[in-house]
């Protein structure tokens, strides 16, 4: 697979995954390090793209702001359940009341398992095992059982370091499509960078809409048409893009 081209700034709408794309993974979600120069590079790019840059992430928006500060970028958080564009803010967190008791029951089951961490994001729950890899099979099995107790449409996103419960409609493709139907994104070419299973549906949408899909990491089976090997390669590519104006 080829590296992505450096697209024309005035024609580009840029969508950025966070973990594994903009920042290196860490044992705990709070332990990731945002390189000090990165928020500035993103802010600069956002100005040069007339505001057509958005985070598209599984993290919630509060966490995005804690990590990056106030960059002024648009953002889809919690797999698109939260969407922020200028003064417009949409959030589907009211659905959380029905599912939180089911999540807390699951958490109790692993309360004695060191390194297993539960991240509550409204109607979405992430169960992390990156710091306890030996617990992964038991966690996945318990999550699959729990799925049957959640409302119809919920799905389990299984990864190699945990799993996330997502309600219907929480997808990165829906988030990208939402931005692309609005100014300043509308009419531009979508460029989406991601590294994970949850990004594949975004790559597929981007390809279908004549965009540029970029997977970060070693070459594996993916829908993306382009690749960048490492997070550092992403930073270099973003810097080149910002300077191309
Ligand atoms: O869509 P993303 O921006 O890639 O966010 C996906 C999830 O990222 C975070 O979890 C992942 O990164 C952690 C830090 O490296 C790691 O410890 C964990 O194993 C990964 O799953 C975040 O905590 C989740 O809320 C996001 O959904």
What kind of sheet is the major sheet? Answer: 8 strands, mixed
* Cα-based radius of gyration, to the nearest Å: 18 Å
What low-confidence regions span 5 or more consecutive residues with pLDDT below 50? none
What is the count of distinct domains? 2
List the bound ligands: the ligand O=P(O)(O)OC[C@H]1O[C@H](O[C@H]2O[C@H](CO)[C@@H](O)[C@H](O)[C@H]2O)[C@H](O)[C@@H](O)[C@@H]1O
Please identify the top-level CATH class of the largest domain. Answer: Alpha Beta
Strand content: 15-25%
- What is the CATH topology descriptor of the largest domain? Rossmann fold
Please identify, by name, the CATH architecture of the largest domain: 3-Layer(aba) Sandwich
Overall number of strands: 12
Explain how this protein is built.
Removes the phosphate from trehalose 6-phosphate to produce free trehalose. The longest helix is centred in the middle third of the chain and has 14 residues, at 96-109. By secondary structure, this protein is α/β, with parallel strands linked by helices. Helix 1 (38-48) packs across helix 7 and helix 5 (172-180) runs parallel beside helix 6 (197-208). The chain has 2 domains: 9-91 and 170-243, Rossmann fold (3-Layer(aba) Sandwich), CATH 3.40.50.1000; 93-166, Alpha-Beta Plaits, CATH 3.30.70. It is built from 7 helices and 12 strands. It has an 8-stranded mixed sheet with strand order 5-4-3-2-1-10-11-12, with helices on both faces. It has helices at 38-48, 61-68, 96-109, 136-147, 172-180, 197-208, 231-243; strands at residues 12-16, 53-56, 74-77, 82-85, 88-90, 117-121, 124-128, 155-159, 162-166, 189-194, 212-216, 226-228. The two termini are 26 Å apart. The structure holds the ligand O=P(O)(O)OC[C@H]1O[C@H](O[C@H]2O[C@H](CO)[C@@H](O)[C@H](O)[C@H]2O)[C@H](O)[C@@H](O)[C@@H]1O. The site of the ligand O=P(O)(O)OC[C@H]1O[C@H](O[C@H]2O[C@H](CO)[C@@H](O)[C@H](O)[C@H]2O)[C@H](O)[C@@H](O)[C@@H]1O has 23 residues, from strand 7 and strand 9. The ligand O=P(O)(O)OC[C@H]1O[C@H](O[C@H]2O[C@H](CO)[C@@H](O)[C@H](O)[C@H]2O)[C@H](O)[C@@H](O)[C@@H]1O is lined by residues 17-20, 25-29, 32, 57-59, 119, 126, 128, 130, 159, 161-162, 164, 196, 198.
């Amino acid at each position: 697979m080829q590296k992505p081209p450096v697209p024309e700034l005035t024609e580009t709408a840029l969508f950025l995954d966070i973990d594994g794309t903009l920042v290196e993974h860490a044992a705990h979600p709070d332990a990731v390090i945002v390189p000090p120069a990165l928020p500035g590079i993103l802010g600069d790019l956002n100005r040069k793209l007339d505001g057509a840059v958005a985070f598209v992430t599984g993290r919630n928006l509060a966490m995005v702001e804690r990590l990056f500060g106030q960059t002024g970028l648009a953002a889809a958080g919690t797999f698109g359940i939260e969407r922020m564009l200028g003064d417009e803010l949409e959030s589907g967190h009211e659905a959380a009341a029905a599912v939180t008791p089911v999540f807390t029951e699951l958490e109790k089951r692993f309360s004695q398992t060191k390194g297993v961490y539960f991240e509550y994001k409204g109607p979405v729950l992430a169960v992390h095992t990156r710091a306890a890899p030996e617990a992964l099979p038991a966690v996945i099995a318990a999550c699959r059982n729990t799925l049957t107790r959640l409302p119809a449409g919920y799905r389990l996103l299984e990864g190699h370091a945990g799993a996330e419960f997502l309600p219907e409609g929480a997808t990165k493709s829906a988030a990208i499509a939402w931005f692309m139907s609005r100014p300043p994104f509308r009419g531009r070419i979508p460029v989406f960078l991601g590294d994970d299973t949850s990004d594949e549906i975004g790559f597929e949408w981007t390809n279908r809409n004549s965009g540029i899909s970029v997977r970060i990491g070693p070459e594996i089976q993916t829908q993306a048409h382009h690749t960048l090997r490492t997070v550092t390669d992403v930073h270099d590519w973003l810097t080149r893009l910002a300077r191309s104006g």
